[in-house]
From TrEMBL:
The keyword Isomerase applies. InterPro entries: CapD_C, NAD(P)-bd_dom_sf, Polysac_CapD-like, Polysaccharide_Synthase-Rel. This is UDP-glucose 4-epimerase. It is an enzyme of class 5 (isomerase). PANTHER family: UDP-N-ACETYLGLUCOSAMINE 4,6-DEHYDRATASE, UDP-N-ACETYLGLUCOSAMINE 4,6-DEHYDRATASE (INVERTING). Belongs to the polysaccharide synthase family. Residues 288-335 form the UDP-glucose 4-epimerase CapD C-terminal domain. GO terms for biological process: lipopolysaccharide biosynthetic process. CDD domains: UDP_invert_4-6DH_SDR_e. It comes from the Bacteria.
Length: 344
């Protein structure tokens, strides 16, 4: 990937769905060292064996622990911060765990990156951080706020550039709905649909990696990038998968909304878009770099008026069943599931 003169990078959460794809991409390029910081030695071992590349270096540790973060950060020129608790239900039941990892852990990554003069830190956020209603989204919104505060604090001339990316549902990520629906279809169980009209942005893993690369290449202090993306209803997603796996009339069971779910997700608010830069496939949301000068806040205030709507999964490009089917077919994860699969 186009990491310029960067020789050594760190991917926190490097054994997750995003992390592994990122690590693969990085190793395809001319890079000296890719560090992976994560907690699970078994996942690290599996990735080590799969990669068989001495340039990949594994650090066991937890971002909650400043020491282990420092050790992994020291000496790298770029950090891609993907480690997180990202399951909505688990964060809902254990919100303090989300605080420990997504808030305090991210603060460790931000501080260590500044301290060790890392050139670029890109932090991964989610659409669930916009107008958040669940603990996962709230903790990620806090991470975004910490990035903004640190960016204002160190200023545009600092050695470290800190940015965020925000994206929607990554298709086929571990524990998400697509692998679940595929399993249900293959096992002849009903597809469990929460609310057929619920929509989600659909982002292939490759696009999430491209977004992070875009942020790395274009970030100014405190920027947040989003990629424009298509969405579909859950009903259409279920139908497309059932058709693909040769069971067009597969039974569907309505299970109702889960804890703290939204009918649709918002990638950027109208207010944010009011000052954003349209970069084609991407938006750059700018840091509000006014300082804590209350007179300016209250007598001058923010004069830009938002002229558009929020950008959300109900009003973005909507894929129909055929559109979802084509997108699914382009994913290596789905292709692997289809290989050798014949119904019955
Ligand atoms: O049995 C199920 C499970 C889910 N859904 C629906 O499918 C959609 C997607 O559900 P996922 O569990 O795949 O994703 P979430 O939107 O809940 O959240 C996901 O996307 C987040 C990013 O926005 C995080 O990555 C998070 O880990 C991941 O679970 C939702 O509308 C959900 O209601 C069903 O219809 N049936």
């Amino acid at each position: 990937m186009g990491t310029g003169k960067v020789r050594r990078v760190l991917v926190t959460g490097g054994t997750g769905s995003f992390g592994k794809t990122m690590v693969h991409e990085l190793l395809r390029g001319d890079i000296e060292e890719v560090r992976i910081l994560s907690r699970d030695e078994e996942k690290q071992d599996a990735l080590r064996n799969r990669l068989g590349d001495a340039r990949a270096r594994f650090f066991i540790g937890d971002i909650r622990d400043r020491e282990s973060v420092s050790r992994a950060v020291k000496g790298v020129e770029a950090v891609f911060h993907a480690a997180a608790l990202k399951q909505v239900p688990s964060c809902e039941f254990f919100p303090m765990e989300a605080v420990r990892t997504n808030v305090l852990g991210s603060e460790n990554v931000i501080r260590a990156s500044i301290e060790h003069g890392v050139g670029s830190l890109v932090c991964l956020s989610t659409d669930k951080a916009v107008q958040p209603i669940n603990a996962m989204g709230i903790s990620k919104a806090m991470m975004e706020k910490m990035v903004q505060a640190a960016s204002r604090e160190i200023g545009p001339e600092a050695a470290t550039t800190i940015s965020c990316v925000r994206y929607g549902n990554v298709m086929c990520s571990r524990g998400s709905v697509i692998p679940l629906f595929i399993r249900q279809i293959k096992n002849g169980q009903p597809i469990t649909v929460t609310e057929p009209n619920m929509t989600r942005f659909l982002m292939p893993l490759r696009d999430s990696v491209a977004l992070v690369r875009f942020a790395f290449e274009h970030a100014r202090q405190g920027d947040l990038f989003i990629k424009k993306a298509a969405a579909s209803t859950i009903a259409d997603l279920a139908t497309a998968l059932a058709e693909l796996f040769g069971s067009p009339n597969h039974p569907v069971k309505a299970i109702g909304w889960r804890h703290a779910e939204k009918l649709y997700e918002t990638l950027a608010s109208a207010q944010e878009l009011g000052t954003a830069e349209d970069m084609g496939d991407y938006w750059r949301l700018r840091l509000d770099d006014r300082d804590l000068n209350y007179a300016a806040y209250f007598s001058e205030g923010e004069t830009t008026t938002a002229t558009m709507d929020d950008y959300h999964s109900h009003n973005t490009e909507r894929l129909d069943v055929e559109g979802v089917r084509q997108l699914l077919l382009s994913l290596p994860e789905v292709q692997a599931e289809l290989e050798g699969w014949t119904r019955g």
